Amino acid sequence: MRRSIHKEKHNLEKTGWLRAAVLGANDGIISVTSLVIGVVASGAGQQTIFITCLAGLISGAISMAAGEYISVKSQADIEEADLALERRELEINPEQELKELTQIYIHRGLDEQLAHEVAVQLTAHDSLAAHARDEIGINEMTVAKPIQAALSSALSFSVGAVIPLLAVLFAPAHYLANSIVIVSVFALLGLGALASYTAGSPVWKGALRVLFWGCFAMLITSAIGSLFDVNVA
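Below the sequence we write its predicted structure tokens.
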């Protein structure tokens, strides 16, 4: 009877998209909510608050996408440059590169003979991939993907920013500030818990961590907004 191959799913595989998604949604909730709370504290009308919230959503999503793309593209450029350098070294001095690979495996615990055999076989199979993975540290799970990261950040920011926007749209005017805060607090708790659950870490720790910094940001912007009164003649 043929046994099926068991393949484990590790949380590290989620690092790229999870980081961008959590960062985007968290920033969307916190930054737009904090912005709106500051404007509400200044005494602005509901239409002004809505326009501010919408503008924060659009500009924030674009900013997140651009920032994430530039950041991850820079990482990708570094990886490509390192791979190009390694490719040249493999063409010019393959024996030296084989010795480097052998030493890497010796340092990881293999004896010299076995390390050499492993290095020879991996070099014969795909020398660049072997050096990229074991010498440089580039592999399929962690390779930089700029467009994917940018789209994920923009989308997740928009999803997060929609939460305070909906509160502005549907909450009664005299309960606007409280409604925005309550909705955003529950959203931050849910986001922190979901991110921790997906990453395989304790749920309550992630929820409280995200909630703490979100409330801190809202408190600061509310205090600043209360220093201004747009209704003063």
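The chain is about 80% helix and 0% strand.
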